[in-house]
Design goal:
single chain, mainly alpha, 105 residues, 3 helices
Length: 105
């Protein structure tokens, strides 16, 4: 299994390497106000990929901070509620939930 993973990684690497070698022609990216950027196509694709990674990580950052702050807070004890007793005549819980939901499945 270990060798298969290395073989898969090597195949992905050589595929990307061949992509980079086949796309060395200049590409022009036009921005606003008449500005442009000329670079090899593989660099343009790499820059777009890196930009997507940065935007995605920045979008997830507030959620990470929220979860980290919640994990650092001390755990609160569960609320105490009076015990619900089932009627003596019936063997089911007094709820309107289906039987699957009553047992937590």
């Amino acid at each position: 299994m270990k060798y298969l993973l290395w073989l898969l990684k090597a195949a992905i690497f050589f595929t990307l390497f061949a992509f980079a070698l086949n796309n060395q022609h200049d590409a022009t990216v036009y921005f606003f106000f008449g500005t442009s950027w000329r670079a090899p196509l593989v660099l343009v694709v790499l820059a777009a990929f890196a930009g997507g990674l940065v935007v995605g990580a920045l979008g997830m950052l507030p959620g990470w901070w929220r979860h980290r702050a919640a994990a650092q807070r001390p755990a609160e004890p569960p609320p105490t509620t009076p015990a619900v007793t089932a009627p003596l005549v019936s063997n089911t819980l007094p709820t309107d939930l289906p039987a699957v939901r009553q047992h937590g499945l």
